[in-house]
Sequence to fold (195 residues):
Amino acid sequence: MKDLFIKRFEYYKSLGDKAFEQLSDEQIFWHYNDESNSIAVIVKHIAGNMLSRWTHFLTEDGEKSWRNRDEEFINTFKTKKEVLDFWEKGWECLFEALGQINEENLYSTLFIRGEAHSVVDAVLRQMAHYPYHIGQIVYIAKMMKNEEWKTLSIERNKSREFNNEMKDKFSNEDAGSNSSPVCFQNSPEVRDEYQ
Fold:
């Protein structure tokens, strides 16, 4: 299960990474209006959450006393490099924590703001949270880049070709193997776990 969690989070991180590659320093800090968050602020929130949730996650509450969530929505970064360094710091903390998950602690109880969660539930909670914000990052980046945007998924009007390529690529492989970087519906590990 741990490997599946890591693979999924790596995919979502890669979407953010590929969006950042297309943006200038100025674009990282752009926001639509005063009520909107820049990509820099969204990164500050995601990484701040990661550091709080996953530092000593098996022994301490996921909402650390040192976290100031409200401050995460105020930009304090000066450069794109600072933003990306903080992004990496958050992911490093998450992946280090995921590396500690094993069969013995997968269903252990941990706490987030005093609320009990199993380890697997806490991971799934964040697997919904982080992609939500990464989607915001990608959407903002795509709006700014407009026609210069390099798609992160199947190109517009290319679905049929992509589907045919996937069918050809995996037609000789075991039907139970994971064929998609996005979908794990064919994974025996997932099927057995959630029947």
In short: Confidence is low (pLDDT under 50) at residues 190-195. Residues 107 and 121 are 8 Å apart (CA to CA).
